[in-house]
Amino acid sequence: MKNLKTKILISVLVILAVFAGFFVWYVNDDYDATELALASLVSTEQVEVIEGEPIQFLPQGEVAETGIIFYPGGKVEEEAYAPLMQALAEEGFAVFLADMPFGLAVFDINAGDDIIAEHSEITNWYVMGHSLGGSMAAIYAERNSELLDGLLMLAAYSTADLSQSDLAVLSLLGSEDQVLDWEQVQEYQPMLPADAVEVVIEGGNHAQFGSYGPQDGDGEALISEVEHHWCNKKHHLGKKIRYLVYDQRSA
Questions:
Q1: d(CA 50, CA 32)
Q2: 0.90 surpassed by pTM
Q3: Is 77 left (phi over 0), alpha (psi -120 to 50) or beta?
Q4: What are the CA-CA distances from residue 168 to residues 8, 51, 65, 244 (Å)?
Q5: Per-residue pLDDT for 3 more than 90?
Q6: Angstrom distance (rounded) from CA 150 to CA 68
Q7: What is the pairing mode between strands 47-50 and 66-71?
Q8: Where are the alpha helices (DSSP H) in the chain?
Q9: What mean pLDDT, rounded, does the chain reach?
Q10: CA 77 to CA 92: how far, in whole Å?
């Protein structure tokens, strides 16, 4: 009997060790930011970059009235979104790039709380996220609709019911995205307000909302990473988001 208990104990310990090893591997197996992304972590004449938790991208020489809190995609290094954060700051937004535990926004859905509390100078707030980060941002928006003006989702959908909220909602998708579950996008569309805006970037895929290289299972993009979101006038996400946040909402 004692030998049997010992064998069972050893078996349990082995299983726990294997599980722990797998967990450590999983949480450290991130999509890393590219050199192009890392180059956007440097302040410019237009944008001041303050590294920390969160990383801040602030318009130079002005106090922004509107802030955007960004939730990274699952297992994606937050710095991979630096080019897009730069583009948004150039459009006059104060942008806060959150660092998520284990690279998964599900472990810190309320990351926006401290950011909002620490920046009372900002009067209008939007929460934004990519992929898993976008879905978690939607949950945060549902919980804090009285604090926020809107939700910006990149390659994501909302399982939280925002249909009766006054939030401005923008959903940006890439036509070649094969990571996103398009059936779920359609299934959960009624969760969004009736005036939510959906924009499909023709030729874009899932990974191009960040700058971290190809993603497993993704479709092949028909436009370049640069064309996708911050340099090309047709697809410039900073300008597109500014238009949808300011101009269209007030029209």
A1: 20
A2: no
A3: beta
A4: 56, 29, 16, 9
A5: no
A6: 9
A7: unpaired
A8: 2-28, 35-38, 82-90, 112-118, 132-143, 182-187, 225-229, 237-242, 248-250
A9: 85
A10: 24
